[in-house]
Amino acid sequence: MSKTLRDISVVVADTQFLTNTALHALLSPIYPNYRTITTKSGLLQHLQKESASLLITDHEQFDYGSIEELGTLLKQQPGMGTVILCNSITLPKIKELNDNGIRNIVLKTDDRDELFHAIDSALKGKKYYSGDVLDILLQKEGPLEDASILTSSEIEIVRMIAAGLSTKEIAAKKYISFHTVMTHRKNIFRKLGVSSSSELLMYAIKAGVIDNIEYHI
Asked: Model-level pTM greater than 0.85?
């Protein structure tokens, strides 16, 4: 039986007052079982006593010591989804978070929809990187700097392909026709010199853009 919203326990671990206030206003009406924690000791005590469905936290602002320490904490809570909500992020940090099993990252400058997409994905055990986080991956210096020749719509479709969406799903999500998506795909492949989704993935891996980041094609 799937969980209801009342069954989902959400823990926000952050030290920033405005962040905590904003998240409480956004999430507590949706998830009644909601708690804000501002210290690492408080978080550890809470997780020892109660299980959580979702942890939303800032790896920089909260006193974890290191990303590896946060990863160790998460391994002790195997059923808990995790969303990193941070002020900024770098490619090495994305890789380090990924290496520790954390694959849902959103920036505090992202909009409401990005946050809720990340939460939904984390609760379902799927990964989600916001558009700005994906831009860091796609715009890394190296062979894939050619991605700058793509239009914003094409970049968005590349993200959806990398996330595992089918052509039909992309069309539905973008409210465009199947044929239009196919045209975009052909243009993307032509510009980047690839001929299939698998080649697109391999191109990105070889360029180091999604090195150690798991995507589905």
From this structure: no
